[in-house]
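Good morning,

Attaching, inline, the backbone tokens for the sequence recovery test we're adding to the shared suite. The designed sequence is right after.
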């Protein structure tokens, strides 16, 4: 697979660009550029563009997630919940 395809898969899973870079072992600037590419094509949207402002900071699989993420369709449920 290409880096662009890998970034798309991660972005569709709700990962931030920093998380995408860490997961794929790529430079954060490359992850940002790849996400920008998919945003320009209309394939993905940034949470701040969809939700407005900085309410969503991406999804982290932790029980301490912000209340702003409670109803987010991108937030992953913790195992057993």
């Amino acid at each position: 697979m290409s880096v662009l395809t890998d970034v798309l898969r991660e972005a569709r899973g709700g990962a931030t660009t920093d998380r995408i870079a860490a997961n794929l072992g790529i430079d954060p600037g490359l992850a940002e550029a790849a996400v920008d590419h998919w945003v320009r094509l209309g394939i993905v949207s940034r949470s701040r563009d969809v939700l407005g402002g900085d309410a969503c900071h991406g999804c982290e699989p932790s029980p301490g997630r912000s209340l702003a993420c409670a109803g987010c369709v991108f937030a992953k449920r913790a195992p057993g919940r």
